[in-house]
C-alpha cells in the first residue's frame, strides 16, 4: 500500500489518496506517514478527517507527530489534541518543545488540559504516566439499569467499556464489574452486588515493568490505578502494556549488546546517534580487554617454549565466553520474569555449577579426543588444553549466573552484566587458567 500511495503522490492524485486512507486502519495510516518524506507527511495528514487524524496520532512515531503538530495551525492542533485520549496526548507533549506545549495547553479545553497536566506530573515510566483518565466508573449504590445508561452516554470518551469500576462516596476503588455481568443480571440489581471485590490494581508510582508483569501474570486487558489514598485516578489498558514490553525488551537487548538504549527507531537514527550509543561501551571493553594482553605478556616465556599453545587460545576464550553468555541470558530472563530473586542466589549458582560440570566434562572429553587423534599434539598438551577448557566452562557459567543477580540486588540493570562484559571478564579468566595449568603440567 505504501508504494501505491507513493505513486499517487507523484501523480498528485490526492482525491484518490484520501479515499484509500479513509478505508484503512489507523495503524496502517500511521505506518505510511512515518515512512514518508517530511514535506509529504503534512500534505497527506491534512487529507484525513479530524476524528481519524486524532486516532492516527496515537500510533505515530514521536518525530512524525511533533512535525505534524508544529506544522498545523493552533486551532487545527487543538482540535486534534481535544479528540485524543489524554494518555496519548500526554505522551505526545513529553516529546515536544516546552514552548509549543505551553502554547497548546493554554488553548485546549479545560477538561483536556486538566487531564494532560495530571498525567505529566507523574514520574517517567510510572503507572501514573502510562494511565488514561478516560474510564467509566459507578457509585456502589446505583442499579445496573442506571449503570448501562451511563455507559451509553460516555462510551465514546472511554478507552474501554469491557471493564468498569465501582467506587464509594469518597471515590475509593472498591470493586470492578464486567460488561457481560451488567448485561446478564437483572436491571434493578445494585452494582455492588455483582461487582468483583478481588481485583488487581497498581498505584500511580508503580514502575512500568511491574505493571507489565502484573498484566502478564493475571491475563488482564485493563487495570485500575489508585493514588496514595486508594482513590481511583485512572486505568491502564493492554495496548499500553504491549508498548512497555516492546520497549523494555528492546532496551534489554541493546544493553546486552553493549549499546546505550535509544527510543528512536533504527532508520530514524543518524550515523552520529549510532556512534554515541555504541562508543561508551566500546571504550570500556577496549580498556578492560588490555587485561588479557597483560596476562599473555606475563606468560610470554611459556608461549615461546610451546608455540602450539597459542593456536588454542581463541577456542578456549570463545568457548568460555559462550558458556558465560548462555548462563547470563538465562538468569537475566528469569530475573525479568520474576522466576528467581536474590534469596535464590545459592540455588542458582549450585544448579549452574552442576550444569557447568556436565558441559565441561563433555567438551573436555571431545576436545581431548580431537587433539590426540587428529591434531596429534601429545598427551601433556592435550591434557593442558582439555583441563583448561573444563575449568573455564565451570568458571564462566558460575560468573554468568552470579553477576546479573548481584547487579539487580545493587540496583543496576542486570542486562549490563551480559554479552560483552561477561565475555571480556571470562577471556581474562580463561587465559589465566590456561597458563597456570600449562605452567604446572609442562613445568614452565
Give the key terms.
444 residues, 21 helices, 6 strands, 65% helix, elongated
SSE string, helices as H and strands as E: HHHHHHHHHHHEHEEHEHEEHHHHHHH
Helical element count? 21
Largest β-sheet summary = 3 strands, mixed
Give the uncertain stretches in residue-range form.
none
Overall structural class, as computed from helix and strand content, comes to: mainly alpha
Strand order in the largest sheet = 1-2-3
Mean pLDDT across the residues is 85
How big is the Rg? Answer: 30 Å
Helix percent reads: 55-70%
Tell me the total number of β-strands. 6
- Rounded to the nearest angstrom, the distance between the terminal CA atoms is 70 Å
Gross morphology is: elongated
Strand portion, in percent? 5-15%
Write up this protein.
Helix content is 65%, strand content 6%. The protein is mostly helical and 444 residues long. The chain is built from 21 helices and six strands. The protein is elongated.
Topology:
Blueprint: H1 2-10, H2 14-22, H3 26-35, H4 38-46, H5 50-57, H6 62-71, H7 74-83, H8 86-95, H9 98-105, H10 110-120, H11 127-130, E1 137-139, H12 144-154, E2 163-167, E3 173-178, H13 179-184, E4 202-203, H14 208-218, E5 222-226, E6 232-237, H15 238-256, H16 271-298, H17 300-305, H18 313-337, H19 345-375, H20 379-409, H21 420-442
Parallel strand pairs: 1-2, 4-5
Antiparallel strand pairs: 2-3, 5-6
Helix pairs in contact: 3-5, 4-6, 5-7, 8-10, 14-15, 16-21, 18-20, 18-21, 19-20, 20-21
